[in-house]
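Project outcomes to date are best conveyed with an example. Our students and postdoctoral researchers have been running inverse folding experiments weekly, and each run begins with a structure described purely in C-alpha cells. The record below, which covers 866 residues, was selected by the lab manager from last quarter's runs and is presented without edits.
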C-alpha cells in the first residue's frame, strides 16, 4: 500500500485557515441574525408602551432595527476586506514554498493600499478628533477633524507637539496629567478646556485617553476628543440660572427622594446646605402629604401640573404657602423616573394680598359710610368712580355717572366755574380747593353741593386725575339763609322795639291831650280838628303796635276764631279803595272750615296788608283787575289764598320780598315792612306764607294757619281787655265811680304824668305824681292811694321792684297797681302779674280807656253769701 506523502506546512495552514474561516462565517451570520430578531422583538414588545410616551418617540424601535441593519452591512463590508487580507496572508504562506511572482506582489500592494484608503476615509469622516501621541506629546497619527481643530493643514499637523497648537493646557500641566494617568491605570475620560494659540479662543472637549504599552513600556497614547463648547456654555448658563433663580427648583424621585435642589429652595425651606436638604424626603415637608400624592398622580397621568397651591413645613416648623409647577420625566419605555419642578414662596404675597384686601375693605366701608359722595375723574374730566352715596344725594345710581363729563348735570351758570377749578387742579396750580355749585337731582330739582377736591398722583408723581368729595348743602344753605334772616329780623326788631318804645310816650301824650281837647271843645270846627289829630295819633299808635309786634310778635289774648270772619272784616276795611280802583273781588270759602287760634287784630292786619299789596300790584299795570280770595282746609291748616292778576313778581325777587325794607314800589309808596311783618305775625301763629308768581300773570300769596286744638282757649283777662280798649277809641265820659278816689302816677316822663293827672282829675279823682320809685315811696309814707299807675321802666328802682316791695310790705292792703308800659309783654308775663294783683296797660293809650279800666278796678266787689 503506497504510503501517503507527507503534508506540507502551508497545506496544513490553508486547511486550518479554511476551517477557521467557516467558523467565523457561522459566528457572524448567527450574531447578525440574533441582533435582528432582538430588535424586532423589542419593537413589538414596546409598541404599546410607546403610545404613552411623548409624540415622536414611537420611531425609536424602527430606528433601532435600521441601526442594526446598517451595523450588519458595515460589518459585512469589513469582513470582506479581512477576507482579502487573509487571502494575502495565505499567499504569503504559499510563497514560502513557491516564490511570488511580480504580479502577485503588485496585487498584494493594491489590496493593502485600498484597505488603508478605506480606513483613512472612515476616520476622516468622523465629527470628532482621533489622534495618537508619542510619550513626549508629539502627534503621530490624526484625522482631518484634528487638523481643523488646530487650524492648520493636515500636512503641517503630523510630527508636531501639541503645545505648538494649544496655549492651554501648558506642557507642564499635560505632563502632570499623564503621570497621574499612568499611576491610576491605562484609561481616562473627562472634559478638558483648551485655548487655541492661533485664535485665542477657549474651547471645551470631552476626551478619552488609552495608554498603549509594550512590555510595560509606554509606546503611545491613543486619544478621542469631541468639541462640546456650545453644550458646555449652555450647561454653565443653566448652572448659573439654576443657582441664581429666586424660585426654588427641585428634582425628585416619584417616591419623594430629593435628587437635586438649587440654593433658593434650600433657603426657602430653611436648611443650612443642599446636602442637609437632600437627606430628607420631599413628602415629609408637606403639611398634608396626601396633597403631594394627588399632584404626583396628576403629573403621572397628564405629564405636568401648573400653579398648584401647597402648604409646606420649613425646617423650623413654620408653614409657608407655595405655588408649585412641574412635569414628569420618563425613560424610553415610558416609565416615570423622576419629577422636575419649581416652587414659589407666596406667603408674603398672600399676606400682602390679605392686607390689601383688608385695606380695600376698610376703604370701601369708609367710602360707603362717609356722609359725602366720593368721585374720581380722569385728566379729561370724566368720572371713573362714584360712590354709592351719590344716589342718596342726587337720586341717580353711580353707574350712570361713569364716563360722564364733570359739568354735564351742573347748572349752566356754574359750569365755567367747574371747568376753571378742574383746570387748576389738573395742571397742579393748586393742591386743594373748595367750591359750591348747583346740580340737577333725578327729580328735576336743583341741589347745591359743596365739594372739596385735590389732584390724584401716580407712583411717579404725575397728576392722573382728580379726587373729590361732595355733600348736599341745600338744606343747610336754606337754614343759613333763614338764620341770617332771623338774625337780621332780630336786629331789626330790637331797633324797632327801641323806636316804638320811645314813640309810645309822646304818642300817649298826644292821644291824652287830643282826648282832653276833644272833651273840652266848644264848637264843632274845633272838635273836628281835634278829631283829625286824634285819628292821626291813633294811626301812629297802630304803626307803633305793628313795630312792637314785629320786634316780638307775642300775641295777646288768643281765642278761637273763624278765618272767614277775619277776611271779611279786612275786605270791609278796603272795600271803598278796591271799588275806586275797579278791582272786583271773588270770595269763596269751603264749608265747615275749622276754627283757628289767634288774635283777630294781628290777623286782620296780615290780611289787610295782603289785600293792599294786591290792589297796588293791579293798579300799577292796568285800570281794572280781579282779586280772588279762597279759603279751604289743607291737612292740619286752614289756607287763605290771595291771587291777583297784576304785574307779578320777577323770579329773582321772590326770595327777597320778605326781607325788611325791601320794596319794588316807587319812593314813598311803601316802607318795605308790610310783608316782613305779615310773615312774622303768621309764624307767631304757627303758620307760614307761600308765594307763587309768573311775570306778567299776577302773584298768589297762600297763608297757612294751623287749626285750633281741642283745648279751650282761656278768656281774655283785664290786661288784655285794657290793651284792646287802648287800641280803640271809646266815647268820652266821666264815670261817677272814679269820683273821690285817689291815684299816684309814677312816670319819668313829665308829659305822661301831666296828661294822666289832668285827665283823671277832670274825672273827679285826687291825683299826685312822682318821677321815680324812690319819690313814690316818700309819698306813700304820709299818704295812702287807691291805685298806683306806674311806668314799667323807671330809672333806679324799676316799676316791677316797686310793686314787689309794696306787695311784700302791705300784702292784701296794698293799693291797686297798674303798669303803664311801652314794651310788648308776652302773655306769660302779663298772666304772672295778674295772679299777683297787678294789671298791664299798653302805651299809647287814651285817658278814657284808662278811666274805664280804673272804673272796673275800683268798683265795689260783691259780698259773698255766707
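After processing, the design step wrote out the following sequence:
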Amino acid at each position: 500500500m503506497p504510503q501517503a506523502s507527507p503534508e506540507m506546512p502551508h497545506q496544513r495552514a490553508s486547511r486550518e485557515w479554511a476551517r477557521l474561516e467557516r467558523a467565523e462565517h457561522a459566528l457572524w451570520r448567527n450574531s447578525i441574525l440574533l441582533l435582528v430578531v432582538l430588535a424586532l422583538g423589542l419593537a413589538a414588545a414596546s409598541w404599546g408602551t410607546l403610545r404613552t410616551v411623548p409624540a415622536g418617540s414611537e420611531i425609536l424601535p424602527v430606528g433601532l432595527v435600521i441601526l442594526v441593519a446598517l451595523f450588519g452591512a458595515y460589518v459585512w463590508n469589513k469582513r470582506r476586506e479581512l477576507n482579502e487580507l487573509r487571502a494575502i496572508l495565505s499567499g504569503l504562506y504559499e510563497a514560502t514554498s513557491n516564490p511570488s511572482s511580480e504580479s502577485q506582489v503588485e496585487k498584494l500592494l493594491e489590496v493593502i493600499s485600498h484597505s488603508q484608503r478605506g480606513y483613512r476615509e472612515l476616520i476622516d469622516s468622523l465629527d470628532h478628533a482621533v489622534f495618537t501621541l508619542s510619550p513626549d506629546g508629539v502627534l503621530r497619527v490624526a484625522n482631518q477633524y484634528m487638523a481643523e481643530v488646530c487650524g492648520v493643514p493636515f500636512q503641517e499637523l503630523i510630527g508636531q507637539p501639541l503645545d505648538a497648537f494649544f496655549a492651554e493646557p501648558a506642557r507642564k500641566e499635560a505632563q502632570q496629567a499623564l503621570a497621574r494617568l499612568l499611576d491610576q491605570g491605562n484609561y481616562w475620560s473627562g472634559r478638558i478646556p483648551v485655548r487655541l494659540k492661533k485664535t485665542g479662543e477657549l474651547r471645551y472637549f470631552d476626551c478619552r485617553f488609552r495608554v498603549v504599552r509594550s512590555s510595560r513600556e509606554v509606546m503611545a497614547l491613543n486619544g478621542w476628543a469631541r468639541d462640546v463648547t456650545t453644550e458646555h456654555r449652555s450647561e454653565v448658563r443653566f448652572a448659573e440660572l439654576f443657582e441664581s433663580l429666586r424660585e426654588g427648583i427641585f428634582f425628585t424621585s416619584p417616591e419623594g427622594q430629593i435628587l437635586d435642589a438649587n440654593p433658593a429652595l434650600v433657603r426657602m425651606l430653611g436648611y443650612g446646605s443642599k446636602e442637609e436638604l437632600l437627606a430628607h424626603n420631599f413628602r415629609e415637608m408637606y403639611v398634608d402629604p396626601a396633597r403631594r400624592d394627588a399632584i404626583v398622580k396628576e403629573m403621572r397621568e397628564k405629564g405636568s401640573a401648573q400653579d398648584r397651591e401647597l402648604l409646606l413645613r420649613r425646617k423650623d416648623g413654620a408653614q409657608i404657602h407655595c405655588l408649585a409647577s412641574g412635569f414628569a420625566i420618563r425613560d424610553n419605555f415610558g416609565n416615570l423616573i423622576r419629577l422636575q419642578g419649581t416652587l414659589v414662596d407666596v406667603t408674603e404675597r398672600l399676606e400682602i394680598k390679605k392686607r390689601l384686601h383688608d385695606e380695600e375693605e376698610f376703604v370701601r366701608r369708609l367710602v360707603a359710610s362717609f356722609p359725602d359722595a366720593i368721585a374720581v375723574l380722569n385728566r379729561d374730566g370724566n368720572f371713573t368712580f362714584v360712590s354709592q352715596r351719590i344716589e342718596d344725594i342726587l337720586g341717580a345710581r353711580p353707574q350712570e355717572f361713569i364716563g360722564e363729563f364733570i359739568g354735564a348735570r351742573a347748572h349752566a351758570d356754574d359750569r365755567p366755574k367747574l371747568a376753571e377749578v378742574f383746570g387748576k387742579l389738573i395742571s397742579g396750580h393748586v393742591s386743594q380747593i373748595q367750591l359750591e355749585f348747583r346740580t340737577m337731582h333725578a327729580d328735576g330739582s336743583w341741589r347745591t353741593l359743596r365739594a372739596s377736591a385735590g389732584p390724584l398722583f401716580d407712583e411717579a408723581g404725575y397728576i392722573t386725575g382728580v379726587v373729590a368729595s361732595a355733600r348736599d348743602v341745600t338744606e343747610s344753605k336754606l337754614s343759613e339763609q333763614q338764620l341770617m334772616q332771623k338774625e337780621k329780623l332780630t336786629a331789626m326788631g330790637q331797633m324797632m322795639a327801641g323806636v316804638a318804645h320811645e314813640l309810645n310816650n309822646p304818642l300817649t301824650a298826644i292821644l291824652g291831650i287830643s282826648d282832653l281837647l276833644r272833651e273840652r271843645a266848644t264848637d264843632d270846627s274845633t272838635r273836628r280838628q281835634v278829631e283829625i289829630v286824634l285819628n292821626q295819633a291813633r294811626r301812629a299808635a297802630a304803626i307803633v303796635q305793628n313795630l312792637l309786634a314785629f320786634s316780638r310778635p307775642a300775641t295777646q289774648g288768643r281765642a278761637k276764631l273763624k278765618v272767614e270772619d277775619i277776611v271779611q272784616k279786612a275786605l270791609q276795611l278796603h272795600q271803598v279803595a278796591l271799588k275806586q280802583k275797579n278791582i272786583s273781588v271773588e270770595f269763596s270759602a269751603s264749608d265747615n272750615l275749622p276754627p283757628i287760634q289767634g288774635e283777630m287784630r294781628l290777623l286782620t292786619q296780615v290780611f289787610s296788608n295782603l289785600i293792599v299789596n294786591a290792589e297796588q300790584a293791579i293798579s300799577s299795570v292796568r285800570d281794572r283787575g280781579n282779586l280772588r280770595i279762597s279759603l279751604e282746609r289743607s291737612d292740619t291748616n286752614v289756607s287763605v289764598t290771595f291771587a291777583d292778576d297784576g304785574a307779578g313778581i320777577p323770579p329773582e325777587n321772590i326770595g327777597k320780598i320778605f326781607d325788611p325794607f325791601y320794596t319794588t314800589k316807587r319812593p314813598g309808596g311803601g316802607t318795605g315792612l308790610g310783608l316782613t311783618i305779615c310773615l312774622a305775625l303768621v309764624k307767631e301763629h304757627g303758620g307760614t306764607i307761600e308765594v307763587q308768581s309768573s311775570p306778567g300773570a299776577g302773584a298768589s300769596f297762600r297763608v297757612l294757619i294751623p287749626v285750633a286744638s281741642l283745648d279751650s282757649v282761656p278768656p281774655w283777662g283785664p290786661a288784655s281787655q285794657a290793651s284792646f280798649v287802648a287800641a280803640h277809641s271809646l266815647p268820652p265820659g266821666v264815670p261817677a265811680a272814679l269820683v273821690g278816689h285817689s291815684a299816684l302816677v309814677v312816670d319819668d316822663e313829665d308829659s305822661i304824668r301831666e296828661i294822666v293827672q289832668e285827665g283823671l282829675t277832670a274825672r273827679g279823682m285826687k291825683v299826685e305824681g312822682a318821677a321815680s320809685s324812690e319819690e313814690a315811696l316818700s309819698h306813700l309814707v304820709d299818704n295812702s292811694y287807691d291805685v298806683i299807675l306806674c311806668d314799667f321802666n323807671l330809672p333806679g328802682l324799676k316799676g316791677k321792684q316797686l310793686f314787689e316791695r309794696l306787695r311784700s310790705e302791705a300784702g292784701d292792703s296794698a293799693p291797686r297797681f297798674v303798669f303803664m308800659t311801652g314794651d310788648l309783654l308776652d302773655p306769660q308775663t302779663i298772666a304772672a302779674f295778674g295772679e299777683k294783683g297787678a294789671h298791664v296797660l299798653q302805651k299809647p293809650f287814651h285817658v278814657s280807656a284808662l278811666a274805664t279800666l280804673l272804673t272796673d278796678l275800683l268798683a265795689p266787689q260783691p259780698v259773698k253769701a255766707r
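Residues 1-5, 666-671, 711-734 have pLDDT under 50 and may be disordered. The chain is about 45% helix and 25% strand. The training component of this project remains on track.
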